[in-house]
Structures are given as C-alpha cells and as structure tokens.
Give the backbone structure.
Amino acid sequence: MVRHLHALLLSVTCLGWMSVQPVSAETITIGIGTQDTTTNTATAGTIIRQLHLLEKYLPTDGKYAGVKYEIDWQNFTSGPPVTNGMMANKLQFGMMGDYPLIVNGFTFAIIPRARAG
C-alpha cells in the first residue's frame, strides 16, 4: 500500500513538473480608435494601419525584448464612441475630427480616468 502511495505521489509530482511551462512572452494590447471617413484623421488611422508603421517602429529590444504587440484597430463613424472607449480604457489612442477632439480634451480635463495597472 505504501509502495503504491509513493508511486502515485511520484507520478503526480512528475505530471506537475511537466505541466509547468516557461513563462510566455508578455502581450501588450494597444487599442486605437479611428474615424476612417474623416479627412483629417486619415493619416493617423488608415495610412499608419495599411503601411504597418506601428509594427515597424514599436520597440523590440531592451525591456521590450520578446514582447508581443496586439494592435486592436477600431473604426468609428463619430468621435463620441472614441471618447467612450478611451474613458473605459479600451482604447489607448483615439483619432477623431476637430470638434470631437476638443470635447475629448475637455472630458479628460474634468473627469479623471482610471489608469490600467
């Protein structure tokens, strides 16, 4: 009986060691809200996205060595949903027309935004 118990414990321990995998690379998700149909945001959204400029210039060495970037592009037809996404920490960057941009700046000035830890 004791022999079977030792064998069982050894098997469970070995399975535990086998299930421990090396820590995978950190993934940083970057949410970007755009208004592709607004002329003055085309360079910030469509061009950067289509030319993969973020992927080209995001850091990949030093403390960012092994980091995987996940870029979440979201297109909106107006500015308020971009502001809402930023206030909810779902978007880290927002490109929008002039008037929504002013409203966004005012919103961030009067309402403190919760910071992601």
Notes: Residues 34 and 95 are 5 Å apart (CA to CA).
